[in-house]
Amino acid sequence: MKTLKTIFMLAVVVLMSSAFTTDVSGGYEIGDIATDFKLKNIDGKMVSLADYKDAKGFIVIFTCNTCPYAVAYEDRIIELDKKYAKKGYPVVAIMPNNTEVKPGDSFDSMKARARSKGFTFPYLIDEGQKIYPQYGATKTPHVYILEKTKAGNVVQYIGAIDDNYQDAAQVNTKYVEEAVDALIDGKEIKEKKTRAIGCSIKV
Prior knowledge:
two-stranded antiparallel sheet; alpha+beta; Glutaredoxin
């Protein structure tokens, strides 16, 4: 009985640790220049950040169909795009998972999900899983806010969308909104790096 209890507790610890990360190792840090990419959108067209001539920056979000955390944030991601795309900071969503491990994140499933939810932003597939390691993303969702400058797209924020994945009505701090608002107003971002909460990216 004790053995079963121990196994159960270990399983809980592993599950909880997979939902949280405190460090983004091997990827971008605040102030780094993010390399552009060219990834396939759900409409079959290739999309890169350079396509957005009038953008002031980008809200790049690594997300997927199958993670409960990502699903819980879908409506908030849509609202972020509706609010900030017109202000020069569009959402660019990237699905980073290995679709052989997660068939529910297949390209066809991505198209169906985007259509059913009415995504207003590109939903790109990271085929070959080449882009998310460059960023250092480890979770879905995982956010990177980039500011377009003469030197390139500067990473200005990394982490979570807000502080309550369970209930949008109970959010106290909207990290992404506060960061983008600060950039638009030419102010310093208060919290430039927060803990990403979500499912681990499947490789």
